[in-house]
Amino acid sequence: MRRAFWVWGLGCSVGLALTAVSGCGGGQALPKRVLDSKAPSNVAPTPPAPFQLSVIGTNDMHGAVERLPLFAGYVDSLREQERGNRELLLLDAGDIFQGSLESNLGEGDVMIQAMNRLGYRAAAVGNHEFDFGPVGEARTGDPQGALRARIAEADFPFLAANLFSKGTRQLPEWKNLEASTLIEVHGVKIGLVGLSTPETPNIVLPAYLEGLDFQDPLPIVTEQAARLRGQGADVVIVTAHIGGSCTRFEHAQDLSSCDMSQEAMELLQKLEPGLVDVFIGGHTHKAVAHEVNGVALVESFSKLEAFSRVDLTLQPPGNGEPARLLDRQILPPQRMCDDASGLLESCKADEYAGRRVTPASDVQAMIQPALARAKSKREQPLGIEVRAEVTRGYDKPSALGNLFADLTLLGARQVFASGRPEGADVAVANGGGLRANLPAGPLTYGSLFNAMPFDNLIARVRLTGAQLAQVIASHMQRSGGGILSVAGVDVSISCHGDTPEVQLRRPGGKLVRDEDVLWLALSDYLATGGDGLFKGVQLAKDAVEISPDVMLRDAMADALGAWGKGGKAPALSNGRLDPSKLFDPKRLRIQRAERRPVCP
Fold it and tell me: Where are the domains of the chain?
């Protein structure tokens, strides 16, 4: 019905709206009764219906180009369900580009194209986002040029609240880079905050981080979340290249399978309750689907092996009531197929949430140029056969680690001294650079790339025997991180309390004296301070020599090819690469290396 209200004794000063109704401007008296056809009835209006917001998280995609069409199929399947009652919010927790030939050859361009099509709303900045350095083949110029180009191409912001221009508290002035953002879905305001791991300066080529600082995320996420709440955010979600590790996902409140010392766990336990609702994690390549201090923490392995999902039931604002978070469900990591190889053809289409999942044909067409660009390089034979799988170890000695140290030594001798021994005396390889096993059979460049996807240059460092012993002793006393593998020297360690004493011997048993001058072959990443390798070691100013144009991986490929052409090497058995010749658990190249710290 229409409600009548009475207007008593109002003059022309009541305002323009009444003036228009009454004709007051013409000097006429106001009517004594006005009908309001829009006034509410005695029946209370129906409140807005609740809706479900499915927060989909990815992390550490590492250029998994071939998985993108299948992932798009899952996303499209969800979008087709219950239109109007379900919304999707896609977020990524960093390390998007680096890791495959298909992505690396275009410095991650195809990944951004696919993410734009999928409708991502924000992404964090991972440590490997910086790996490409300047744009293209250049080794000089803007040290973050390639990353800035990718960020500018995105239809969504990259978020990095704890990344600052060096010496300031200001975000770098990059197009499309923000600390946080506020979006709205059906009237519900959602705050998004991004974080990078503060470990970044220790695990990225220092030259590529020139002018940047990474700060402690705890006070920053506290400040950003509180600010977003003050701006009306009903829900706050963090996407961060900071992660955890759990092994069971049946009950979100059961943390018994989780490593509570992981960075994300420690951060959330210190965070003030009620500030953050959801935390999309990354960096550890593990999985989490748990509630930590009232926050839904999720992470889903790496290379699009799986994705994370948190369903939020939200009540939009209406009838004078604010928006509310009614319910939250944390789902286990959703594996996209049983095979974790990353190859699209190895994944069978299946059902998800009651619908058939099929790879998205438009995304398949989108990635085709990148696949074609990489195909010939990937299939390039290296001229040697692998007798049995060469396995890697991140924090333990391994056949692959020893092989890469051997190849680094040979590569440096070739690059710096035309193959002569004086080009390098010893070599090291870091466990963090070992990303996949080498498969048995004829070895291709693609398999070598999968095992070492980083475009590091080959380098060497001049140091004394005492300094090398100091480097190894310091490394072996660390309790975490990737382990060093060595070539050209055998290392024995004795303990004096918690202090290791390192002795180095050349092949044949000759002792390396403290005053001996050595050339140490390694990657430019390690040579310039990566992994804190030379922390506390006073090197000469001209001690580091980096090849300007030879990548370490290519030098390794050349060394393998030379072996395949009849070269002699202890790692060969009947002309084939034999992992049993590379690694003997009873005779480690670094004694006691199976446990760190070696002198607890």
Answer: 3-36, 51-373, 380-581
What is the CATH T-level fold of the domain 380-581, as seen in this structure? 5'-nucleotidase;  domain 2 (3.90.780)
Q: Which of 43-52, 171-180, 213-222, 419-428 has the lowest mean pLDDT?
A: 43-52
Cβ neighbours for 218, distance < 8 A, ≥ 6 positions apart: 267, 270, 271
Q: 424 with 521: CB under 8 angstroms?
A: yes
Owner of token pair 């973050």: 144
For the domain spanning 51-373, the CATH number is 3.60.21.10
pLDDT of residue 339: 55
Cis peptide before 597 (omega within 30 of 0): yes
What are 17's two structure tokens? Answer: 């709206």
Q: What band does 349 get if pLDDT is binned at 50, 70 and 90?
A: low
Q: What is the CA radius of gyration of the chain?
A: 30
Average pLDDT, the chain: 90
Supply the pLDDT for residue 582. Answer: 97
Q: pLDDT band for position 15 (50/70/90)?
A: very low
Q: How far apart are alpha carbons 78 and 354 in whole angstroms?
A: 10
Question: Are the C-beta atoms of 423 and 410 separated by less than 8 Å?
Answer: no
Nearest to 263 by CA among 235, 286, 247: 286
Spatial contact of 58 and 308, defined as CB atoms under 8 Å apart: yes
Residue 35: is its pLDDT beyond 70? Answer: no
Residues shown for the chain: 600
Residues whose CB is less than 8 angstroms from the CB of residue 576 and which lie 6 or more positions away in sequence, other chains included: 384, 385, 386, 387
Task: Show Cβ contacts of residue 484 under 8 Å, excluding neighbours closer than 6 positions.
Answer: 428, 429, 430, 431, 472, 475, 476, 590
Q: Provide, rounded to the nearest whole percent, the portion of the chain with pLDDT above 70.
A: 90
Which single residue is written with the structure tokens 């499209």?
A: 76
Q: Token match 């090291």: residue? A: 428
CB 35 within 8 A of CB 4: yes
What pairs with residue 458 in β-bridges? 523
Sign of CA dihedral 428, 430, 435, 439: positive
pTM of the model: 0.85
Name the 3-class secondary structure at 253.
coil
Three-state SS for 523? strand
Q: Counting runs of H as helices and runs of E as strands, what totals does the chain give?
A: 14, 30
User: Going edge to edge, which strands form the sheet with 235-240?
Assistant: 180-185, 188-195, 235-240, 278-280, 295-300, 287-292
Rounded Cα distance, 300 and 67, in Å = 14
Q: At a CB cut-off of 8 Å and minimum separation 6, what does 530 contact?
A: 202, 203, 204, 205, 206, 430, 523
Which residues, including other chains, have CB under 8 Å from residue 301's CB and lie 6 or more apart?
Answer: 60, 285, 286, 287, 333, 340
Q: Which residue has the higher pLDDT, 346 or 476?
A: 476
Distance CA 500, CA 598 (A): 7
- Apex CA 304: angle with CA 299 and CA 308, to 5°? 35
Please provide residue 96's backbone torsions phi and psi, each rounded to the nearest 5 degrees: -90, -45
Burial class (CB in 10 A: 0-12, 13-18, 19+), 355: middle
Query: In 389-532, at which residue ranges do the beta strands (DSSP E only) sit?
Result: 426-430, 441-444, 457-464, 484-487, 490-496, 499-505, 517-523
